[in-house]
Automatic annotation (TrEMBL):
<dbReference type="InterPro" id="IPR036670">
    <property type="entry name" value="SecA_X-link_sf"/>
</dbReference>
<keyword id="KW-0963">Cytoplasm</keyword>
<protein>
    <recommendedName>
        <fullName>Protein translocase subunit SecA</fullName>
        <ecNumber>7.4.2.8</ecNumber>
    </recommendedName>
</protein>
<dbReference type="InterPro" id="IPR020937">
    <property type="entry name" value="SecA_CS"/>
</dbReference>
<keyword id="KW-0547">Nucleotide-binding</keyword>
<feature type="domain" description="Helicase C-terminal">
    <location>
        <begin position="417"/>
        <end position="589"/>
    </location>
</feature>
<dbReference type="InterPro" id="IPR011116">
    <property type="entry name" value="SecA_Wing/Scaffold"/>
</dbReference>
<dbReference type="Pfam" id="PF21090">
    <property type="entry name" value="P-loop_SecA"/>
</dbReference>
<dbReference type="GO" id="GO:0008564">
    <property type="term" value="F:protein-exporting ATPase activity"/>
</dbReference>
<dbReference type="InterPro" id="IPR011130">
    <property type="entry name" value="SecA_preprotein_X-link_dom"/>
</dbReference>
<dbReference type="GO" id="GO:0005886">
    <property type="term" value="C:plasma membrane"/>
</dbReference>
<keyword id="KW-1278">Translocase</keyword>
<dbReference type="GO" id="GO:0006605">
    <property type="term" value="P:protein targeting"/>
</dbReference>
<dbReference type="GO" id="GO:0031522">
    <property type="term" value="C:cell envelope Sec protein transport complex"/>
</dbReference>
<feature type="domain" description="SecA family profile">
    <location>
        <begin position="8"/>
        <end position="584"/>
    </location>
</feature>
<dbReference type="GO" id="GO:0005524">
    <property type="term" value="F:ATP binding"/>
</dbReference>
<keyword id="KW-0813">Transport</keyword>
Length: 779
């Protein structure tokens, strides 16, 4: 059997199947790790730290770990964890550590100890002199894990810190100066953007990126890969067209406008156009005089028709707050591109937020691509193994569970309508609750979670709700979800970062709950990704616990209507309950999910095709900017352009180092301003590029033709503008007032994530536009 297993692993590797990293090498090292334990146990704490220090000396500058080095890193880490946390790492955690140290994405099931494995790997990389960033999905986990694992790092002589939104520049600089720094992906990205705008070397907070270990790797590297992180500067108030918002609010679907089946596009009918034109004073929306209002109408229609309160966003504390669909949380720093954000604020009649000029931006994928070495850990990597390989050249190592999974995954139950499905879910909760088993119900969005909670309350089935409205209490809610008789209704469970322990945090009734059957998980619908289904199921059956999971679905769920609405004929349902047992219904729902996953992958690919060029341009510009920041290049250029003016300024200032800084600030201002203008130009090009397909041109090629010549103008144009600034400047006894000479940076800056409405492929976008125009003509 062992021979067959080894042959199977090698064959899987040869044909490049997902999850194909062979573990044989690492498994063979486990006895050597265990053999070192008695020797290390005899050491005092200081001797253990000294032993780690000697390993650091031997590892210094190593490009990779030898087998002997892997063994010692893991043995030292296991002993440090035993002393600091009273947790001896299981063999599977040691395997996970080795996989991370070798640059893989390791798949470890929920509750199997990914946090410790990640910490031991981070310490190992730090011991070979590398700066390590442990990238988390939120700020809470960054601080929790850094503090939790801190004693382990201390015993290994490795320093650790974390960054969070409340930290000052000095605190950030200190945190990034540690061997290991924990931070949410957004926070680390925002610090990258802030560093790109500094005018003095001492203001930089991050060093050069070296190693990233990504927690919830599939969520960060795949689900959020195309999300842009934005640094903006304040321009003025972001006023939406209130008159347009009022008009659009009165429009009705099917009469005044239509939407496509996947809910990504909306357009006016001829009747709708007539109503809008008349309401706005008899303008011609499609003539030259109405073109400005047409853009406002389109964005207001998008906000009205395609974005739903309590699904896509909340209104809380007088503000529109976006909901992260993958996590079910409020995305605190997220907003739509400015026009759409303002339109939603007008729709909900809340105060408009400031409008910002984008100073720089970077996608999550580009952020992680900066690191020469990336590894990751998650419970559901195999399903996206091909994407991890395609976009990051990462392979997946599947780590077996420490204790076999005995969870019972029950077949989906399918119903004809959502209302029939909801009744069946309520009955399922009642039936299981009567046994005393804890129940976790995973819903699709805030609105659904609250509707279900209301129904359960009326049926005398009390529950605790975890959604974007109360995500601040999520750790406490999840921690108690395994208590006897508990019913917890939650939106997306991915990245919650807290295990559900049978019996609750105290574990007093653990054995009783286990005897009852453990945690029962109910999904109220299939998610657009099978990984999200798996993440919800994985909340039950942790570390060999008993448990069960079941999903309910409807042939009229959004997943089916958006991705596979053509239901085969002849599928019958039970006349009383509405339940459908025909295998064709199961095939239809599975097909809809595969379509959704395929669309998401194409969106990812399409976004990366366009952003890849931008990232190359950004890297080239930043190399020039860094040279300006660290040398006297700016002063040399200005002196060459205007020697007399430069000599006069030098005489007035009587300080060559302040003079260099002055020249540097002038040149960097123009470099940064031109880059901001370039990004705005590329956004305009990208939004109109689909129409090029009508002329049988390749949109991506056209994008490159537009983007490349404009980029090459930036550096020479910045030098020209800087020289002109100096030429026109009036020099006083105090030197040069940069603000009076137009060198004025934004007085307020802020960061946020853009909730980009997903692109379709270029072809699909074009076809939809043509289709809508044809509908207009027919009407």
């Amino acid at each position: 059997m062992a021979l067959i297993s080894r042959v199977g692993k090698r064959l899987r590797r040869i044909i490049q199947r997902p999850g194909s990293v062979e573990l044989t090498r690492y498994e063979a090292l486990l006895p050597a790790v265990e053999k070192l334990e008695p020797e290390l146990e005899k050491l005092s704490d200081s001797e253990l730290t000294e032993r780690a220090g000697k390993l650091r000396e031997r590892l210094d500058g190593a490009t990779a770990f030898t087998d002997d080095q892997l063994v010692e890193v893991c043995a030292l880490g296991r002993e440090a964890a035993r002393r600091a946390l009273d947790e001896r790492a299981f063999d599977v955690q040691v395997l996970g550590t080795m996989g991370l140290l070798s640059g893989h994405v390791v798949q470890m099931e929920t509750g199997e100890g990914k946090t410790l494995a990640g910490a031991l790997a981070a310490a190992g990389h730090a011991l070979r002199g590398k700066r390590v960033h442990v990238v988390t999905v939120n700020d809470y986990l960054a601080r929790r894990d850094a503090e939790w694992m801190g004693p382990v790092y201390d015993l290994l002589g490795v320093s650790v810190g974390w960054v969070e939104p409340a930290h000052s520049r000095e605190q950030r600089k200190e945190a990034y100066g540690k061997d290991v720094t924990y931070g949410a992906v957004a926070e680390i990205g925002f610090d990258v953007l802030r560093d790109r705008l500094v005018t003095e070397v001492d203001d930089l907070v991050q060093g050069a990126p070296e190693i990233a270990i990504v927690d919830e790797a599939d969520s960060v590297l795949v689900d959020e890969a195309r999300v842009p992180l934005v640094m903006a500067g304040s321009i003025d108030h972001n006023d939406a067209d209130e008159e347009v918002a009022t008009v659009v609010r009165r429009l009705r679907l099917g009469l005044h406008y239509e939407t496509d089946s996947d809910g990504r596009n909306a357009w006016l009918t001829s009747a709708g156009s007539s109503v809008v034109e008349k309401s706005l004073g008899g303008i011609d929306l499609y003539g030259d005089s109405g073109s400005d209002r047409l853009a406002a109408v389109n964005v207001a229609l998008h906000a009205h028709a395609l974005l739903t309160r309590d699904v896509d966003y909340l209104v809380r504390d007088g503000k529109v707050q976006l909901i992260n669909a993958a996590r079910g949380r409020v995305a605190e720093l997220q907003r739509w591109p400015d026009g759409l954000q303002a339109a939603v604020e007008a729709k909900e009649q809340v105060a408009a937020t400031d409008r910002g000029e984008i100073l720089d931006s970077i996608t999550v994928q580009a952020l992680l691509a900066r690191y020469p070495e990336v590894a990751g850990m998650t419970g559901t990597a195999v399903a996206v193994a091909e994407q991890l390989r395609e976009f990051y050249r990462l392979e997946v190592a599947v780590i077996p569970p420490n204790t076999p999974n005995v969870r019972e995954d029950q077949p989906d139950r399918i119903f004809g309508s959502p209302s029939q499905k909801l009744r069946a879910i309520e009955e399922e909760i009642r039936k299981v609750h009567e046994t005393g088993r804890p129940i976790l119900v995973g819903t699709q969005d805030v609105a659904e979670s609250e509707e279900l909670a209301d129904k359960l309350a009326k049926a005398d089935l009390p529950c605790v709700v975890l959604n974007a409205r109360n995500d601040a209490e999520e750790a406490a809610i999840i921690a108690e979800a395994g208590k006897k008789g508990a019913v917890t209704v939650s939106t997306q469970m991915a990245g919650r970062g807290t295990d559900i322990r049978l019996g609750g945090t105290e574990g007093a009734s653990r054995e009783e709950v286990a005897e009852l059957g453990g945690l029962h998980v109910i999904g109220t619908a299939r998610y657009p990704s099978s990984r999200l289904d798996g993440q919800l199921r994985g909340r039950s059956g942790r570390q060999g616990d008993p448990g069960s999971a079941i999903f309910f679905a409807s042939l009229n769920d959004d997943l089916v209507l958006s991705n596979a609405p053509d239901i085969p004929e002849g599928i019958d349902s039970d006349s009383e309950t509405g339940e459908v047992t025909d295998p064709a219904a199961h095939r239809q729902i599975n097909h809809a999910q595969r379509v959704a996953e395929g669309v998401d992958l194409e969106i990812h690919r399409n976004t990366w095709r366009y952003t890849r060029l931008i990232e190359r341009q950004r890297a080239e510009l930043l190399e020039h900017r860094d040279k300006v920041l660290r040398t006297g290049l700016a002063a040399e250029g200005l002196e060459k352009a205007h020697p007399e003016k430069f000599a006069e300024l030098k005489e007035k200032l009587d300080d060559e180092a302040r003079l260099e800084q002055l020249a540097r600030e002038v040149l960097l201002f123009h470099v940064d301003q031109l880059w901001s203008d370039h990004l705005a130009y590329l956004t305009d090009v990208r939004e109109s590029i689909h129409l090029r397909a009508l002329a049988r041109e390749t949109p991506l090629d056209e994008f490159h033709r537009a983007a490349i010549p404009e980029f090459h103008k930036i550096i020479p144009e910045a030098a020209t503008r800087a020289a002109k600034t100096l030429e026109e400047a009036e020099i006083t006894d105090d030197g040069l007032d940069l603000a009076d000479n137009g060198v004025r940076r934004a007085n307020t800056t802020w960061t946020y994530l853009v909730h980009d409405n997903p692109f379709d492929s270029d072809f699909e976008q074009t076809i939809k536009r043509v289709r809508s125009m044809m509908k207009m003509k027919k009407a």
